[in-house]
Each structure stands twice: as structure tokens, then as C-alpha cells.
Design goal:
The complex is a heterodimer of chains A (564) and B (311).
Chain A lengths: L1 H14 L5 H14 L4 H15 L12 H4 L4 E2 L13 E7 L3 E7 L2 E11 L10 E6 L11 E12 L2 E6 L4 E6 L21 E18 L6 E11 L2 E7 L10 E12 L2 E6 L4 E4 L8 H7 L1 E2 L11 E16 L5 E11 L2 E7 L12 E13 L2 E6 L5 E4 L15 E2 L2 H6 L6 E10 L4 E5 L11 E2 L3 E2 L3 E11 L4 E6 L1 H8 L3 H11 L1 H12 L3 E11 L2 E11 L4 H12 L3
Parallel strand pairs in A: 1-2, 5-7, 11-13, 15-16, 18-20, 22-23, 28-30
Antiparallel strand pairs in A: 2-4, 2-6, 3-4, 4-5, 6-7, 6-8, 9-10, 9-12, 10-11, 12-13, 12-14, 16-17, 16-19, 17-18, 19-20, 19-21, 23-27, 23-29, 24-27, 25-26, 27-28, 29-30
Helix pairs in contact in A: 1-2, 1-3, 2-3, 8-9
Chain B lengths: L11 E3 L2 H5 L3 E4 L7 E4 L5 E2 L1 E15 L5 E9 L2 E7 L5 H15 L5 E12 L5 E12 L2 H26 L5 H6 L4 H14 L5 H16 L26 H19 L5 E2 H10 L4 H14 L2 E5 L2 E4 L1
Helix pairs in contact in B: 3-5, 3-6, 7-8, 7-9
Classes of the chains: A alpha+beta (564), B alpha+beta (311).
Chain lengths: 564, 311
């Protein structure tokens, strides 16, 4: 007990060297006995008393309350200097993320913010990153900003350290952030919703239907409402966990909805803390105007889209039968569809209102969902009513979509969804050493490694020709897989000739000869792409090396950039 | 949950030697698989480059651990790229470089195009040197060289334009994006601005003009390469295009400057002197001979064995 007390006394003495240890101890005892305040909690009060007794109160800095400045801030440069129980820290940091959120704290709604920050804000990229929580509703915290935090404390939880910015902390902005903090109570345009976080939107309900979510653990179901809401900038899907009774066409304001991404598609989540109310604005875009916006193009489709409306040309259709779980026979219709922006697949669980002999046919599809198989969007239709046959396409009739290939910039391919029927151009920056003759597994067609398939074991396999390359446009890269036909066309050679060359000169010399022919040159590839976390891959059906007229290009450069 | 996610492949920048050689800023990510970058004055955040030119020198060197490192230089209209191929390179690359070295040795002139990783090295005085580690390379024809030059010029012009625009803008993503600066240049420009400050980009424009001339005159190595950049170069610069006497006086000057700079009162030791001279492109043997000459001539004295001082 006494030794405990000694520690606190010593702490006070170290801050106020002139104080009498006896009197300090008496003060602590008095707090403990009379006010039932243990020494650790009484520390500040005792310290303040002796500081003021001896006239050592430091002038309060800025608007901070005297209480918080009683203990002088300890200045540190790095997080590594901090311990789990440090308080009143002063440090310069760079805010890297900032997410405001409403949280219920002791039955009270409070806006707090959480995010990450880095120390050594002036040194580029050398800082450590910590998480923080802002309890003070500070409006001047924004991503990218460099700030000096005064009077913040360290929080250690399960060995993980973070910073607490308290209500009494002071924030001095040293360099403005790159983006304004979005106040989660101010409405934003729907098209700007990209990142997860909390938003308020004003929009018209475009679709709404009840749905049921089956809990994964089998413990029951949840009733939800799904739908879409739009403003003149765009459309977003919503999922309401609360009863949602606003009809299609009504204009509403949704406050504090949580944005979550499902398969890279942002979606508004309406929960308990979300407020939904009818909004009045006579100049707001009408339902008819907005429904034009909601028609999707194939190039925009991504895995996870819901309530999709689009107009497509169905090019072929096949029916497959399968056995349902109960042994019952089920049917699914699937086929290829196209619009001027690209091609993809569709599936229908009911018989479509057209047959193979009607093809090609223009169909308006509504309320569909998008799944992706090998990255290629598949528009899934559950009932025949979702398909309506149109007499003429909304695009020019002459457009022959069956052979339509859409030119897409390389960097647009790598950042978007997987696409079919595209062509793109880039510089060949790599030709992989395993390009040339390969052997594939007879069962799964995968490439054999050391004469064996990973799943089907050792075998001779089937011979095939294939090139692996990397295309690059200076800002993005794409791995390019060239199939047999495209490969023979590109090399202007037959499979036997290639085999002869490899057996005569060896694989290394063969691949090197490919580099001498193609490395650094422009190549245009036609095919389909698969985009996933691994990056983008183009499966090419045909490839051509581009001849560049360098003299013409030089003249163009001189003209365009004014190089004499 | 993927914990260690590898970054996607970094794009290759078409870049003339002068822009890469003058870079002194680098950035290394904190994660295991984070790529590292060299950031050029024009704001290119370079992890990988595609370069081309005439091989000027390609020689094997024994390294401390007994392996062989091939070091070479690639000349384009703007200057030299330095590259090295060591044990870490692919077998194809190593075999190729042995073959190339033999052909250079026998007097052949070869144009090479390579896709390479950007490397940087900082010496004790804080100077940063950049070099390349080729991943894939091939001998090219003059027409492919012209194509590469044209692309390098175009890319450099786009960077020059973006850098000029960015100079007068607030250094943040929003204002740069608003000014129409391409997305892939924004990060690098924001990092480059405080580091390099203001500089004269006229040399880059001049380099582009030279390159465009080469494309149009259909004459690949038309004239003597321009004078070497002022920046000191990390590797031997026995390029053979400057006379022996100028090399000698340059070496003499370098040694005297080094002694001035490094002398803490008791002189500079032999090893420090020679390795610093080597870092500035002088062969150890040459530097040793020159040091003898300076001692004999009385410009330098040896207060104790192996320590040199200006007289």
C-alpha cells in the first residue's frame, strides 16, 4: 500500500519538483479516504493542486480545457516509442483512412470515426501504420492529411496498439488532406458511392421486393427487402434488414445507410440505425427518366449485380436437363447474348418466350441477376415473364453482333469485369519460357507438369501449341495466352515446323527466337478476358503484330507536342 | 482470407537513360511482396522498364562470394543505362549474356532491347545510383529500335507535360486528376515534387529531339553520343569514346576531390579511396597507378603507410 503510494508521490514530485512529499502523500490519502478515489485516479487532481500551489500551471494550449493540459504532452516521433498505457501524447501523423460511423454507446447515439494513420508523415512511405478511433467528432481529420495530434492516448488490446483521439485532444492540420470528409448526414450522389462506409442518399425507389435470407448455420430465416434506388447520377441496390414499405416511385431520403460491397458491387444496407423518410422535391428526376438510366450495357455487368435490366440479342440457346436434389428432372436454358458493347451468357430457369428457330431475337430482360462463371457474366433469369421480345433493337439494325469485336483499351480491361469478344493492343514485355509445345491432361485439359497432371496423375497427355506472354500499355499489364490456331497464325508456321525447330535447337533457343521477333513490339489480341484477384488474363483466339510507321509517329509527336 | 497477397505485375515504362539515371528517389513498400520503386524527376514510379540501345560494354566481374556478375552499359540517345546480370537472373538470361559478352569482345556492334527491373543503390555519402536487372532481352533490328525510341519519346513527352501541369497545382490526388493528369502518373508526381523541387527539364526535351532525329534520319547511331551526364556513374565508364588523356585528368581530379572530401585530418585510407573512385567509374588498377603518380608528383603525400593526404 505504502509503496504503491510512493510511486504516485514520486510521479507528482517528478512533475512538480518543489512539492513537499509529505503533503503530496497526505493529499492522496485524503482523496482516498474522504472521496474514495484511489491514488491512480486522483493523480491528476493532486498534480494540479500542487502545480497551482507552486504557480507552475502551464498555460493551457489553445482551446483545450485546463484539465487536459495539466499533464504536459509528451512529444514523440514514432509509434515505436509508445507503450500501451501512454497518455497525453503529442505526435505528427498522416491520416490514411477515416470512416465516420454512428455507434450506440451507453444507449446514446454517438458519431465516432475510425481509420488508420502513419507516423513519420514527412518521410515518404517509411511510417508504421496504426489504427485510431476518434471520439471527438473532429471535422478536420481527412484521408491524406498530415496533422499534429495533441493529448491522444494509446490503447492496447490483445497486444495490438492503437491511438485514441479523445474529446479533449487537439488536432492541428499541418497539410490538408486530399479529399473532403463526407459528413455521413449530408446526401451524396449515388454514382459517387464506391467505398464501404456510411452515407446518406436521396433517391427514388426503382424496385423493391421481399426476400428471405437463410441463415448459414440453419438456425432460421430473416425477412429482408431488396431493391434499387436511383438519382440522376446513377442507381444502387439496397438491402433492408428492417421493414421497408415505400413503393416503387416514391422519393425517399435514407440517412446513415451502411455501404457494403457484395462481389465488388456496392450496396446500401438499411439497418436499425438507418433512418428512412419520405422526401419532397418536385424537381427530382421522374421514374420514367430514371428507368432509362437503369438499362445496363453488357460491358457494365459484374458478378453480383441484381435487378438488372438490359436489352440484348440472343444469338443461340440450348436446353439442358439435370436431376434436382429430389430426383426430379429440371431444365435450364442457356445461351450467348450480345449488345453493341460486348457479349456474354444468359441462363433461364423457365422456358423462354422464343425458340431456336426465332434466333437471333432481341429481348428485353428485367429483374435479372448476374453471376459470373470463369469471370464471364451470366445474366440469370428466373421466370419467363422477365423476358420480353422486342420487334427491333434500340441500336442500328445493320450492326452484326455475331462477329462483333469491341476494341477496349488495355488498362480498361484490367480494371473492369471479365469480357467476351474484345480486342486490345499492348507492348509485348515478356514471353514465358514454357511457350511452345505443351502436353495437356486427357481428362481435364490442364497442362502436364513433368509428365503428370495434378489431379489425374502420370500420362502421355495430348499435344498442344500455346504461347504465354505479357502485354503492357505502360499503366497496366495483362497475361496473354495464345491458343493453338492463333499461335500458328502469329508465327506463320505449322505445328510440325515448330516441333522440328524445338527438337533441333532446344526450347531456350526457340523461345529466344520468339523474343527476337516480338519483344518490345505492339501486338493486338482478340479473345476474352478473365479478371480476378490474380490479375487479368486474355485468352486469345487471334493475334497480330502491329507494324508501326515510326517516321510518321515521330512527325506526329513533333506536331502534337511542339518539339521542333 | 488471403494474408500475403502479391501485388499485380508492375507495368514497364518506356524510358530514355537520362531520366532513369538522374533519379535519386526510391520507395520501398513495407510488406514482404510490396514492390519497390525508383521515382524519376518526371514522376514515373518505376519498378520495371523497357529500354533499348547499343551495348557499349559487357564484362564479367568476380564478386566477393566467387560468383560471376556481368556488368554492362546500354547507350541510347540520352545517355547510358547500367545493367548487371548475376546468379539471380534466369538461366536464359545468363546464357544470353555470356554469348553477348563474347560477341562484343570480338568487336560486334549489337542493339539490345530489354525488359528489366529498376534497382537503386545508395553509397555512404548518400548519392543514389540506379541500374537495371534484365529479366528478358533480345537483339533487335534498327526498325524495332526506332519503334522503341518513338514510344519512349511519346511516353516521356506525356510525363513532361504532366510534370509541367503538376508544378503549378496543389500536390494532391484530386487536383492532379482534375487537371487531366493520367492516373498512373499521379502518385509519382506527388512524391517527386518535394524531393526534386524545381529543375530544368530542357535536357529531356533535347534528348527527345535527338531521338526523333534518329528515327527520321533512318541512321541509328548517327553521331557521337552526347557528353555524359554530370552525375557520377556507379560503374566503370571505360566506354572508349573519350580519349585516354581526358580519362586520366578526370581520374586525377576525382582522386584529389575524394581526398579533400573524405580527409578527416589524418588522411584517407587506400581502400576507401579506390572503392570510391570505382564507384565513380574508374578501374581500381588505373586509380592505383594514378595515386602513385600523384605521390611521385608531390600533389599527395603519405603521412603513414596506406593513408593519403593533400600536400
Amino acid at each position: 500500500m505504502t509503496s504503491d503510494m510512493d510511486v504516485h508521490v514520486q510521479q507528482v514530485i517528478s512533475q512538480v519538483p518543489g512539492a513537499d512529499p509529505k503533503k503530496v502523500e497526505e493529499a492522496f490519502i485524503r482523496y482516498e479516504k474522504d472521496f474514495l478515489v484511489p491514488p491512480e485516479d486522483a493523480f491528476r487532481s493532486v498534480l494540479r493542486r500542487f502545480q497551482s500551489d507552486l504557480g507552475e500551471v502551464k498555460p493551457a494550449s489553445g482551446g483545450a480545457s485546463p484539465a487536459s493540459s495539466a499533464l504536459p504532452n509528451r512529444k514523440v516521433n514514432r509509434f515505436s516509442e509508445l507503450k500501451g498505457d501512454d497518455r497525453n501524447i503529442e505526435i505528427e501523423v498522416k491520416i490514411t483512412t477515416h470512416n465516420p460511423r454512428i455507434q450506440m454507446i451507453r444507449g446514446e447515439e454517438k458519431q465516432i470515426a475510425f481509420g488508420t494513420l502513419e507516423d513519420l508523415p514527412w518521410a515518404e512511405g517509411e511510417g508504421d501504420r496504426w489504427e485510431y478511433k476518434d471520439w471527438g467528432q473532429n471535422q478536420n481529420l481527412s484521408p491524406g492529411a498530415i496533422v499534429r495530434l495533441e493529448g491522444v492516448s494509446v490503447n492496447e488490446y490483445q497486444g495490438k496498439m492503437s491511438l485514441n483521439i479523445n474529446q479533449s485532444s487537439r488536432i492541428v492540420v499541418l497539410q490538408e488532406g486530399s479529399r473532403d470528409v463526407v459528413n455521413p448526414s449530408e446526401p451524396v450522389s449515388i454514382s459517387t458511392i464506391k467505398d464501404e462506409g456510411m452515407v446518406t442518399v436521396v433517391g427514388r425507389v426503382l424496385a423493391s421486393r421481399e426476400d428471405v435470407i437463410h441463415r448459414k448455420d440453419g438456425s432460421g430465416t430473416l425477412d429482408v427487402v431488396r431493391g434499387r434506388i436511383g438519382d440522376d447520377s446513377g442507381v444502387i441496390g439496397f438491402l433492408s434488414w428492417e421493414p421497408f414499405t415505400h413503393e416503387v416511385g416514391s422519393l425517399i431520403k435514407i440517412q446513415h445507410a451502411q455501404v457494403r460491397s457484395f462481389r465488388n458491387t456496392p450496396e446500401l444496407n438499411i439497418g436499425r440505425s438507418t433512418k428512412v423518410e419520405v422526401y419532397r422535391d418536385t424537381s427530382f428526376a421522374s421514374l420514367d427518366d430514371l428507368s432509362l438510366l437503369t438499362v445496363s450495357k453488357i460491358e457494365d455487368l459484374t458478378d453480383g449485380n441484381r435487378d438488372v435490366e438490359c436489352v440484348v440479342e440472343v444469338q443461340n440457346i440450348l436446353v439442358r436437363t439435370f436431376n434436382k436434389e429430389g430426383g426430379e428432372e429440371g431444365k435450364v436454358w442457356s445461351g450467348e447474348i450480345a449488345d453493341p458493347t460486348g457479349r456474354c451468357r444468359m441462363s433461364s430457369w423457365q422456358e423462354p418466350p422464343f425458340t431456336e428457330s426465332d434466333l437471333p431475337v432481341i429481348v428485353k430482360i428485367t429483374g435479372a441477376r448476374v453471376r459470373a462463371w470463369q469471370g464471364i457474366p451470366d445474366i440469370t433469369v428466373d421466370t419467363a415473364e422477365q423476358m420480353e421480345i422486342l420487334s427491333s433493337p434500340p441500336w442500328e439494325k445493320e450492326l452484326d453482333l455475331s462477329e462483333n469485336v469491341v476494341d477496349v483499351q488495355l488498362n480498361a480491361l484490367t480494371s473492369g469485369a471479365s469480357r467476351v469478344g474484345i480486342s486490345t493492343t499492348g507492348t509485348v514485355v515478356s514471353i514465358r519460357d514454357d511457350s511452345g509445345i505443351i502436353r495437356r491432361c486427357t481428362e481435364c485439359k490442364r497442362v502436364l507438369r513433368d509428365g503428370a497432371c495434378a489431379t489425374h496423375g502420370e500420362q502421355d497427355g495430348v499435344e498442344d501449341v500455346r504461347l504465354r506472354m505479357v502485354l503492357d500499355d505502360g499503366s497496366a499489364t495483362l497475361s496473354l495466352i495464345v491458343n493453338r490456331d492463333a499461335c500458328l497464325g502469329l508465327l506463320n508456321s505449322t505445328e510440325d515446323e515448330i516441333k522440328d525447330r524445338i527438337s533441333a535447337d532446344g526450347q531456350v533457343v526457340f523461345v529466344q527466337s520468339l523474343r527476337e521477333r516480338m519483344l518490345g513490339r505492339n501486338l493486338t489480341a482478340v479473345g476474352r478476358t478473365i479478371v480476378d484477384e490474380q490479375g487479368a488474363m486474355l485468352l486469345a483466339e487471334s493475334c497480330v503484330l502491329e507494324e508501326v510507321d515510326t517516321v510518321l509517329l515521330a512527325a506526329e509527336l513533333r506536331q502534337h507536342w511542339g518539339v521542333a | 482470407m488471403v494474408i500475403t497477397r502479391r501485388s499485380p505485375r508492375q507495368p514497364a515504362w518506356h524510358m530514355l537513360a537520362s531520366e532513369f539515371g538522374e533519379s535519386s528517389l526510391h520507395e520501398k513498400g513495407s510488406g514482404e511482396f510490396d514492390p519497390s520503386f525508383v521515382i524519376t524527376k518526371l514522376g514515373a514510379k518505376v519498378n520495371r522498364l523497357i529500354v533499348a540501345g547499343l551495348i557499349e560494354r559487357l564484362e564479367p566481374r568476380e564478386t566477393a562470394n566467387g560468383s560471376t556478375l556481368y556488368q554492362g552499359q546500354l547507350r541510347d540517345p540520352s545517355g547510358l543505362h547500367y545493367f548487371s546480370v548475376g546468379d539471380y537472373a534466369t538461366e536464359t538470361m545468363r546464357e544470353m549474356v555470356i554469348d553477348l559478352a563474347a560477341r562484343i569482345e570480338s568487336g560486334e556492334s549489337l542493339m539490345l532491347l530489354m525488359v528489366a527491373k529498376a534497382r537503386w543503390f545508395q553509397n555512404e555519402e548518400g548519392s543514389v545510383y540506379t541500374s537495371l536487372r534484365p529479366e528478358e532481352a533480345c537483339i533487335i533490328s534498327p526498325s524495332v529500335y526506332r519503334e522503341w525510341l518513338a514510344k519512349a519519346c511519346e511516353q516521356t513527352l506525356i510525363r513532361l507535360d504532366a510534370q509541367q501541369k503538376a508544378a503549378s497545382l496543389e500536390s494532391n490526388r484530386a487536383s492532379l486528376a482534375e487537371a487531366g493528369i493520367p492516373e498512373h502518373l499521379i502518385d509519382g508526381l506527388i512524391l517527386a515534387k518535394p524531393h526534386y523541387g524545381e529543375f530544368d527539364s530542357e535536357m529531356y526535351r533535347f534528348n527527345i529531339m535527338q531521338a526523333l532525329d534518329i528515327i527520321e534520319n533512318k541512321d541509328v547511331i548517327r553521331e557521337k553520343p552526347p557528353a555524359k551526364a554530370e552525375t557520377v556513374e556507379p560503374e566503370s565508364a571505360n566506354s572508349g569514346d573519350s580519349g585516354a588523356s581526358s580519362d586520366e585528368s578526370d581520374l586525377k581530379q576525382t582522386l584529389l576531390e575524394l581526398i579533400d572530401a573524405l580527409d578527416q585530418g589524418e588522411g584517407v585510407d587506400f581502400d576507401t579511396l579506390l572503392s570510391n573512385a570505382a564507384a565513380r567509374g574508374h578501374e581500381r588498377d588505373d586509380a592505383e597507378a594514378m595515386l602513385d603518380e600523384l605521390s611521385d608528383g608531390g600533389e599527395v603525400h603519405e603521412p603513414r603507410f596506406g593513408w593519403f593526404k593533400r600536400t
